[in-house]
Amino acid sequence: MSLTATPDGVLLVDKADGMTSHDVVAIVRRKLDIKKVGHCGTLDPLATGLLILTIGRGTKIQDLLMSEDKVYAGTLTLGRSTSTQDRQGEVVETRPVPELNEEQIRAAFEKFRGDFHQLPPMVSAKKQGGVPLYKLAREGKTVEREPRLVHVYAYSIDKIALPDIDFTVHSSKGFYVRTYAHDIGEVLGCGAHLKNLRRTKSGRFDVDLAISVSDIQSKPRDEIVGRILSLPQVSRMRGA
């Protein structure tokens, strides 16, 4: 065990593409030589950006941090619906993309503003009978899911280069961005899937303050420890 103590707190990580959230936890556990590491809000392998890790006694505030709203920047691709509602799934339907103008696209996004219900996708980590839905999906099973109430505080359409649309969305916890992309595609009549996703904010925490996974792997342990936000710092940043 290293002589350098590991403080209790929070480490903000900029997750790389292709990794699971658990991969990041495992890297940090090895680097810091500590078992008590958790993460707040799973990011799919295709997603990059802010992953909040809780260290030591910081794991006790994990639920608190997970309950906060999030900001995502993403790209949806019109014309193809997939089995996972993102680019990693199998294409299940292809439809022609009409000549859409910004007004039509904005009208579709407007339908998913404020409070509305989302149907959790079968590839989500939400549990049914104690089993994550994605495990059932791997077995080829589809089960009834309860729609969940979510909230979109704000959105922006950042770029239209059909069939791709770049957007930013500020949402409540438990929001599925891939379902958001899928549902917007259905409203536009041509289907869609999520091509790219990046989480830029969670509560008061910003990805600009995060350390990259490559830096965690290459920098000295003490430097990583120095990036951990103490519990009092976290409390101040949250305005608590």
Draw up the topology in text.
Blueprint: E1 9-15, H1 21-32, E2 37-40, E3 47-55, H2 62-66, E4 70-78, E5 80-82, E6 91-94, H3 102-110, E7 114-118, E8 127-128, E9 131-132, H4 133-138, E10 148-161, E11 164-171, H5 177-187, E12 192-202, E13 205-206, E14 211-212, H6 213-218, H7 221-226, E15 229-230, H8 231-237
Parallel strand pairs: 1-14, 3-12
Antiparallel strand pairs: 1-3, 1-15, 2-3, 4-11, 4-12, 5-6, 7-10, 8-9, 10-11, 12-13
Please, could you describe this protein's structure?
The chain has 240 residues and is α+β, with helices and mostly antiparallel strands. The protein has two domains: 9-67 and 205-237, Pseudouridine synthase (2-Layer Sandwich), CATH 3.30.2350; 70-201, Pseudouridine synthase (2-Layer Sandwich), CATH 3.30.2350. The chain is 26% helix and 35% strand. It is built from eight helices and 15 strands. The strands form three sheets. Strands 1, 2, 3, 4, 7, 10, 11, 12, 13, 14 and 15 form an eleven-stranded mixed β-sheet that branches. The mean pLDDT is 90.
Q: What proportion of the residues form beta strands (DSSP E)?
A: 35-45%
CATH level-4 homologous superfamily of the largest domain: Pseudouridine synthase
What is the H-and-E element order?
A: EHEEHEEEHEEEHEEHEEEHHEH
The helicity comes to 25-40%
Unreliable parts = none
The overall average pLDDT, rounded, is: 90
Radius of gyration: 19 Å
Q: Span between N and C termini?
A: 34 Å
